[in-house]
Amino acid sequence: MDFRNLIPWNRDRNVPAVRQREDDHPVLALHREMNRLFDEFFRSFDMPARFGSSLAASSFGWPNIELNESDNEITVVAELPGLEQKDIDVSLDHDVLTIRGEKKGASTGAVYSERWQGAFQRSVQLSPDADPEKVTASFRNGVLTVTIAKRPDAQSRVRRIPVNG
Predict the structure, then answer these.
(1) Which helix (DSSP H) or strand (DSSP E) does residue 35 occupy?
(2) Burial class for 150, CB neighbours closer than 10 Å (0-12, 13-18, 19+)
């Protein structure tokens, strides 16, 4: 049975369904815009989001980041393609790591473009064990790596608890 025949206005037509790219769907565009508005509103109170905030098109944040934590350190890796080291600002304030920058694009006079350019900011709440005095950052091939050592007393506070069955 062809399920298209169940739709009353499609019974007499044999027209294939038109598929839109998800990025072009108006409901998803509205969702992204509402996320952006809420991000900007809460940013005005200087409240960092737990998983970062975004001025870019994706709903979860730009730049894309990876957060790794070991017993000795916390590592944040951010993908920043097309940027140079001078375009990036990294700061750590009260256990909040903030990556700011601006991607400047050449005005090509394009009629349509999916390339992203403009200012961005991404904040990540770190563990309170992070040592703000022992932070290093490196930028290579469009990838920013920030390594924050953990305080020595934080490592000794971890207590393993045996699970009995």
Answers:
(1) helix 26-43
(2) buried
The amino acid present at 134, given as its one-letter code, is K
**Encoding tokens for residue 95?**
């256990």
Q: Where are the beta strands (DSSP E) in the chain?
A: 65-69, 73-79, 88-93, 96-103, 118-125, 130-140, 143-150
| Structure tokens, 163 | 């699970």
Element at 40 (helix H, strand E): helix 26-43
Domains of the chain: 22-105+118-157 (2.60.40.790)
Tokens of 37: 């508005």
pLDDT string in tens for the chain (165-residue length): 566 666 666 555 655 554 545 556 788 888 888 888 887 777 665 554 444 443 333 434 678 899 999 989 999 999 998 899 999 999 999 889 999 998 887 767 777 777 777 888 999 999 888 999 999 999 999 999 999 999 888 666 667 788 987
